[in-house]
Amino acid sequence: MTTRRQVHLGAHFPGVNQTTVWRDPRAGSQTDFSSFEHLARTAERGLMDFFFLAEGLRLREQRGRIYDLDVVGRPDTLTVLNSLAAVTNHLGLAGTINATFNEAAEVARQFASLDHLSGGRAAWNVVTSSDAFTGENFRRGGYLAHADRYVRAREVLDVAREFWDSWGPDAFVADPVRGVFARGVREVEHQGPQFDVRGPGLLPRSPQGHPVLFQAGDSDAGRDFGAAYADAIFTMHGTLEAGRRFTADLRARAVRSGRSGDDLRILPGASFVLGDTEEEARANAREIRFQQVGPQQAVAFLEQAWGRDLTGFDPEGPLPADDPDPTSTIVQGRARSVQDRAQTVREWRDLAATNGWSARELVVEVSGRQQFVGTPEQVAAEIDAYVQADACDGFILVPHLTPTGLDEFVDRVVPLLQERGSYRTQYTGTTLREHLGLRHPHRTSGTLDPARQPARHSA
Fold first, then answer.
1. Strands 179-182 and 172-175
2. Would you put residue 15 in left (φ > 0), alpha (ψ -120 to 50) or beta?
3. In what order do the strands lie in the sheet with 331-332?
4. What is the CA radius of gyration of the chain?
5. 80-113: buried (b, 16+ CB within 10 Å) or exposed (e) per residue?
6. Label partner for 134 (CA 20 to 30 A): which of 2, 94, 186, 276?
């Protein structure tokens, strides 16, 4: 009998961005703790592996004005996650912290603290930036060359791991006669191009040894970095075949880095829309997409591609006739950028002409992330098909409504995945590494999910 691969699911707090329908009367606050708590409790009720937070380090600007249609104004990531540790029992807590603008020793201490306080549920989504605009908020604003962003990230993680490993497993001793003292604590001594540090870590070894490491870079350098360092890859791909190619590539890179392909979990971000029938689901999805991409959002999106001020442009008509400006700096601090504007615009014009789309309809089509649309049975079957085909290990779900957008998925789709034998019916571990079936960094036996054992990946 073949053991089915298990589906891993995470819940992404959506924030204010192109995914969220924030004008919906049911939408709640993006900053009240009750919103974070509701989504986290729902994810835990759905036996999901983790709750995931993105982060922005500066309010983005477009045409010299603060751009209010993206992730902005969110409370500090680690403050939110440490607070959620007190109102959840099993759910992993994953936060995005930038390796470019933070010190390795401080981030190591922060995530070790979260791992201790949560009982082993911490995860760090490691991101990089060479953006001088964002860097202006920091002491060394804009100093890092684009080509060096992963050079620094590697050294950040190397130093962080040295701090996490500086305490042995039995280093902390409390003796009633001699008091509290530490033994087997190693001094960290590191000299490199980014860091010159000396001293032991401030905390005993945390339950997971190291927090689970996420990474989301999709460039060639980003893939190599993720394959060498990450436990989980947050990615985007639109089809099952594209997912299989990406997953095979990352597993092969992991093997070339001296790891096993099973040391990685591939987790694309995905949205979902449900309906009692397929027709109803597709109608719901279309309505949601046009709520997400209103006229203002469509024009702002086109300005990013054209690099031009499109004030007064009618998004219900054809695409702009002007050529894009390849040197424009109209957008500052955006997470999404159009690297080759001319090529992008050519492709969009071809798509619009072929399908008879207006400018807004084009934006609706090209700006959406991978989406599962259908009845609960159809969505469960499609998610399961991706995992069984090794196109990924699961998905990070991005609901379109804050904070209640995950409720329907947990109520209607999760039970169907369980019926398929592809999803847990209870938590069997206590740490996020155990939820994801990942090895403990200091144990040779590991804690791999038995359901993954038949599918080994090697060179």
1. antiparallel
2. left
3. 65-66, 61-62, 331-332
4. 23
5. bbbebbeebebbbbbbbbbbbbeebbebbbbbbb
6. 94
Residue with tokens 């938590």: 427
Listed range (16-20, 87-91, 410-414) with the worst mean pLDDT: 16-20
End-to-end CA distance of the chain: 26
In the block, tokens 């000299």 appear at 191
DSSP secondary structure string, 114-180? HHHHHTS-EEEEEE----HHHHTTSTTTT-S-GGGHHHHHHHHHHHHHHHHTSB-TT-EEEETTTEE
Measured between alpha carbons, how far is 353 from 337 in angstroms, rounded to an integer? Answer: 24
Tens digits of per-residue pLDDT, 390-432? Answer: 999 999 999 999 999 999 999 999 999 999 999 999 999 999 9
3-state secondary structure 347-408: HHHHHHHHHCCCHHHHHHHHCCCCEEEECHHHHHHHHHHHHHCCCCCEEEECCCCCCCCCHH
Name which of 230, 231, 233, 238 is nearest 270 in CA terms: 238
Give the pair of three-digit tokens for residue 351. Answer: 């798509």
Nearest alpha-carbon partner for 94 in 268, 236, 232, 251: 232
Q: 3-class DSSP state for residue 101?
A: coil
Mean pLDDT throughout 197-210?
90
Question: Do residues 296 and 69 touch, judged by C-beta distance below 8 A?
Answer: yes
Q: Any bridge partners for residue 65, and if so which? A: 62
Rounded CA-CA distance 431/396 in Å is: 18
Length, in residues, of the chain? 459
